[in-house]
Amino acid sequence: AVQQRRPRVAVCMTPGIGHLIPIMELAKVLIDRHGFSVTIITLAFSASATQSSILSSLPSDHFSHISLPPVPLDDLPDDVRIETTMSEATVRSLPALRHALSALPDVVVFISDLFSTDTFSVASQLGLPHYLFFPTNLLALSLILHLPAIEAAATDHDHHLPDPLRLPGCFPIPRPDILHPIQDRSNDAYRWFVHHGRRYREAQGILVNSFDAIEPGAAAALCEAEPGRPPVYLVGPLTRKPEKSGDEEAECLRWLDRQPPRSVLYVSFGSGGTLPKAQLAELALGLEMSGQRFLWVVRSPSDGEENSEAFFTVQSKADPFRFLPNGFAERTQDVGLLIPSWAPQTAVLHHPATGGILSHCGWNSTLESVVAGVAMAAWPLFAEQRQNAVMLAAGAGIALLAKAGEGGLVPREEVARVVREMIEGEEGKAARRQVEVLREKALNNLKVGGAAEKALDDVVKEWKR
Ligand code: UDP
Predict the structure, then answer these.
(1) What distance in angstroms lies between residue 346's CA and the mean position of ligand 1's atoms?
(2) Ligand 1 pocket by Cβ (under 6 Å)
(3) Is there a contact between 170 and 225 (Cβ–Cβ < 8 Å)?
(4) First-last CA distance in the chain
(5) What is the ipTM metric for this complex?
(6) Among candidates 427, 430, 400, 429, which has minimal Cα distance to 415?
(7) I want to staple 13 with a disulfide (CB 3.0 to 4.6 A). Which of 113, 136, 445, 465 is the partner?
């Protein structure tokens, strides 16, 4: 018998592990539950080994990957922000995208990610319905959707963002904590965000990797139909199952097996976060001072605030351990395990010995922590992480905040305080209670017939029409 061809979903995405991971989870559900085939189209300027290994994690029966040819970007200034690079690369890749999409059989719907909205033009030309996949939360989505209006209303050149920022249903965000790349109105990245905010409205629907219990006010506001704004579908939390890992990684799980329940703080700044040298040292000394157990994914410092090198490659160039204070590894060897660059994070979070995560508050890490029932110590670095931290600490109540002192440095005493509080203190206990409540709601959302499934069913119905 001739096998019926599956309708295909084409997804175009900008680089970044944090973008790829939830898109792959979405692809799995579309293939397994909804009978689609999925093709992910990536912009080529950044393929990393980690990205390739994640892309090859799906069997090729109904899944494929196209990497668009690299485009020249050397005319961009040296201090260009990553959001600008991604947006520019998208525009310059449109002819190649058009070519690739036209050659791809059976495509019924096109999905763009948060920085590749200019691809909507190509989808329109080809008569394809086009949707947006938004990999982070409703607070960030609401902000970007409102940004064109905020920009139009801005009168004060130096303070174009309101203080605090109040978005419908969202926890108010103090100005300094608002999405980092839009703080500087004169930077190209700001203009790109305003531009994307306009283009988001061209989508036929917006799929968001969040769920109502973690940001109920925003969910109520955005799930209500609004003229001129596409419907929002809450398809989250899309997170990876605890993964099987290689030998080196399995070693850290064996180490966890030997630690008491809920006693270890897992320290991770996501796929690309790095600390300045002085901060790296202060964190180390604070962990030591806390006397608590820790599992720390150590990356080489970058003395800029954002290290796009690490963002793209994941691997540190230099041996990260040599930046740690003298004797630190020896002094803490009974309570701490250091791993370079990359940990099997979901497996670590689900391990019974894990008692908390010190996190940069990237949205995938946040959702993974919630699903594993692990409370957070918030140490935001860049992108939307500071506003996430505010919402998770003051809004959802699942995070403790590490407070920076003078010069933006979190001193060792504060590190030690937060770590002790997390593992042994009352604040830690309260955050764990709260995360347990959210965990249950998240799991409810995900079960058969749950809200995430219903939301995706609704949007898929549109695609199959
Ligand atoms: N991750 C991992 N091991 C690491 C660091 C990160 O598996 O050592 C994964 C993590 O589980 C998450 C993703 O990489 O799924 C990072 O995404 P997130 O949104 O938290 O942060 P980003 O990397 O985008 O800043």
Answers:
(1) 9
(2) 16-18, 21, 268, 270-273, 297, 342-343, 345-346, 362-365, 368
(3) no
(4) 25
(5) 0.99
(6) 400
(7) 113
